[in-house]
Every structure is written in C-alpha cells, then in structure tokens.
Amino acid sequence: MYQEEKVRHPIPPVYDENARILILGSFPSVKSREAGFFYGHPRNRFWAVLSAVMDEPLPQSIEEKKTFLLSNHIAVWDVIGECRIRGSSDASIEDVRINDLSVILEKAEIKQIFVNGKTAEKMYERYAQDLYQRKAIVLPSTSPANAAWNLERLIGQWECIRDYL
What we know:
It contains seven helices and seven strands, in the order ββαααβββαβααβα. It is an alpha/beta fold. It has one domain (4-157): 3-Layer(aba) Sandwich (Uracil-DNA Glycosylase, subunit E), CATH 3.40.470. β4 and β5 (94-98) form a beta hairpin. The protein is globular and about 40 Å long. The N and C termini lie far apart (41 Å).
C-alpha cells in the first residue's frame, strides 16, 4: 500500500510549434513516473489507441513515442503539476497546483484540447478552463482501470482527434 506523498510532476511536456492538439492527462501514475514518460504503465492503452487512430506502428521507446507525437502534431502533458497523492490513485489527489499550459498554448497553434478521462476533465474544468478560456473535449480514459472500455471502443471514440490535425 502506498503512503500519501507530495509529488511534483517529473515529466516535461512534449510539444513543438507544429502541435495542433493538446492531450492532457491528470497526473502521471507511479509506473509513468518510474519510466520517466507519459502512459508508462504496460496495460495503459494510450499508445495502442493513438497508433491505431493515426494508422502507424506502435512506438516502443521514449524517443519513438516523442517522434510519433511530434510528427503527428500532438502535444501531451498533464493538468496537474504538483499534488498530494497516494500511489497512482486519482481519488486521493489533493492540494493541486496545475501545470502552466501557456508554455504550449503560446508556442503552438493548438486547435483543440482533449482530456484523457474523467479525472483529467474534472481537474481541467476546476483549475484551468477559466484561466485559459478554452473548453476541452473529454475522451474515455485509456487507463487499465477503465475496464468498461475495450480497445476497439476506445479507438472509435478517440478517432475524433484527427478532425483537428
């Protein structure tokens, strides 16, 4: 069992001036923090969903994942920059400080912000939406905890990102 701890987001955002969409999670899981990159849990379906939506091979290494995102004009980060959390439990998140999304929004011409799951949606709406004056589209979570959604259903819902690229 994990103890609650104050954690600062350890992963820098992935983006460049050509990014057209921004996908935000809530906060990196323990596995992602250990791996040093987004969606590092082996059962998280983020990379499988994106590669299917973009009709490209599944990226494996961190460098392949960065190249995949940038070549497809996708920026990725998380809403939360620092919080108190127990392990990877979204339900335990407290004392939130958000990431400064302006570093991306001022450099890239982001057409649409997407949030990966309900926790990211809740955090974005509570802490960032009014600040940045931009609504986000919520997509079903790719987390293994979202067992109600199989890979095929996720891909079907996530295909809408192509409309903004």
